[in-house]
Structures are given as C-alpha cells and as structure tokens.
Known about the structure:
This protein is an alpha+beta fold. 45% of the residues lie in helices and 17% in strands.
Amino acid sequence: xxxxxxxxxxxxxxxxxxxxxxxxxxxxxxxxxxxxxxxxxxxxxxxxxxxxxxxxxxxxxxxxxxxxxxxxxxxxxxxxxxxxxxxxxxxxxxxxxxxxxxxxxxxxxxxxxxxxxxxxxxxxxxxxxxxxxxxxxxxxxxxxxxxxxxxxxxxxxxxxxxxxxxxxxxxxxxxxxxxxxxxxxxxxxxxxxxxxxxxxxxxxxxxxxxxx
Length: 212
C-alpha cells in the first residue's frame, strides 16, 4: 500500500460524517464506505462469520481488504428478549425472532468500522485525552476538536494536494519521505515542519534532482 492511500484513509472526517448515540461519538458507516472507496475502489469486506454466541452476546468477524492488505474486525450484538405475557407466561415468538435477527445484524454491521480502524480510519476517535472526550460529546465540541487536530496543513486538505502533485511529478512516497526535509525521514506527511508552499517547492526540486 502506498503512502497516498494511507493519507486518504487517515485523514479526519467532516463533522457531518459523525453521529452520536448515548453521548458516544462514532463515524457513520456510509462515510466509512465512501472513504474506503476513495482510497481503493476495489475494497472488499468478507462475509461476516460467527465467532461465538455467549449468553446474550453475538460475536462475529469479517476481513476487510484494502489495496491488497487484509485486516479483520470483530463485531458484537446484544440479544434482547421480548416481554413475557403475564397471561400465558410466554413471549411473542415473532418478536423474539426479530430481536434475535437484529442482534446478528448489529454484530455483522459492527465488523466494518472495527476492521476499518485497523487501517487507521477514524484513528483520532480512539485514545483521546480527557479534554477531547468532553469536547466530542457535542457537534460544536467536535468542530473545536477537529479544528485543533487539523492545524497541520497536511491534515486539512493539503495532504491530498501534495499527493496529487507528487504523482504528477512521477515521484513516490519512499523517495519523498527520505528526502523532503533535510535531516528528517518522515513516517507521515503531517510530521514535516515545512509549510505547504515550502513542501510543494521541495517536491519540484526533488523531481528535478531525480530526473537529472
């Protein structure tokens, strides 16, 4: 997998691509699918399979393939039960079947975001500071968090512009990572201390140097 694909996968999502449930923030699955398609239109998620059903918890797993790399995710679903009819002492079988199916569906659906996280999709929603956890409980707070997170130009749209220019100049990430900034080998573009303009100029210099 090349650096440009990783940069697309790792880029923070827009505020509207998040949602909340019980004050917990998560990425919308349709947003995750769009991001995966942007990174690799041929991405695939395997058919979820059952790992275990323990008490009232369904555990399933699925493998996500992006750019030829496979990583698995575990999904869970909780089985709810229909209320017991006080007259018959039994529960409604149709309702029970619906609730059971819902638990399996939830577990299967949960595999995608868990597997995508293994590709750093939505990485910034994990391991947050206590302050950030308080921020992201509301839409306004999330905007504040993403603004703070995206101060570096590479995480604020500049990364994509950089990759487009890099590819136009027929350069690849290993070449750029080792030579973009003097005395610094980059693990990711957001590590550079160069401004976007300086980095773009350096790309042109590298292309000219390598082309000689």
